[in-house]
Amino acid sequence: MNLWDTLAQSDGVSLAVTLLLLCMSVASWFIILYKSRLLHRAVKQLSVCKALFWQAADWSRAREHWLAADTHSMFTVLLEAAASPPTPGWLPPRALKIS
Asked: How many CB atoms lie within 10 A of CB 55?
């Protein structure tokens, strides 16, 4: 017995569940491949951004280089967080003591 015979003999609920599982499987693989591609691109782009950042003479040049290299705006949030003053109520990392 093959898959087509099984599907031909099944009822509506079985067909609906089979179709739903097939669609969810295709969607899952699409998301997995998309995120994998996005992660690979982010790793490459971060290494370029870091190199340009540390080669800059001052903060404004570093920001210019960073924004030029960050074509998909993946890491602009990191740059803005580093430039902004700390949020009130947050402890700096050196103040956290684990005993």
From this structure: 10
Whether the CB-CB separation of 79 and 63 falls below 8 Å is answered with yes
Structure token pair of residue 97: 């003591």
- CA torsion sign for 80, 84, 90, 94 is positive
What is the band of 1 on the pLDDT scale with cuts at 50, 70, 90? low
Structure-block tokens of residue 45:
């782009």
Tokens of 71: 């074509």
Contact criterion met (CB below 8 Å) for 42 and 70 = no
pTM tops 0.70, yes or no: no
Scanning the structure block, which residue is given the tokens 């960073």? Answer: 66
Q: Alpha helix locations (H) across 1-99?
A: 3-9, 12-55, 59-69, 76-83
